[in-house]
Amino acid sequence: MMIKKSSILFAAALTAFVFMSSCEDGKKKEEQMRIETERVEMEAAENAKIELEAEKAKEAKIKEEARANSVAGQAMTNENLTTLAGALQAADLSTMLSEPGEYTVFAPSNQAFEKLSQKKRDELMLPENKEMLSEVLTYHVVPGVINSEKLAAAIKGANGSYTFKTVTGEELTASMSGDQFVIKDGSGKKAQVILGNVPASNGIIYIIDTVLMAKK
Length: 216
Known about the structure:
The chain has seven helices and seven strands; from the N terminus they run αααβαααβαβββββ. By secondary structure, the chain is of the alpha+beta class. Strands 2-1-7-6-5-4-3 form a seven-stranded mixed sheet. It is 53% helix and 19% strand. It has a domain at 69-208: FAS1 domain.
């Protein structure tokens, strides 16, 4: 009987040991699974963060390239448009012409500004005349993109004299002199396009030899 009882106790102890070992193994496996799950989740979150930062950097680069190739950006890097670039900054228009949009800009060259009297140039650049300068500059900006083919077709379709509005609501008139575009302002003064169809990220540029003025 003693041997039988001992066997039973041994078997019970062995069962308990196996059960406890099994529980311990189960807990270890659960802990390992938890750790592995956390590791995978952390890696996924880190990869998502890296991808998001890369995407933001890519978008920032695209925006920077667009600004550099914008109307304002090209004015700042074109040695023939340095006066215009300074005027855009003085009139707080650089941002407008560097942001996404669709503009056709008749950009006066440095020589165009030199045709104005020194008194007029000084007057326009005075801080108190910023609004006046802004009106002069925006008179050169037309909403929408009009490339040379469209402009030539519009002039032809209007019997040689195509009138259109700038962003100020004032009018300009385009015509042809031989194979060159001529832009007439509200005062009757004419500017010749010396370089046209210059693409920008937010429109198109025509460099002209005269500063245009709206009719007073």
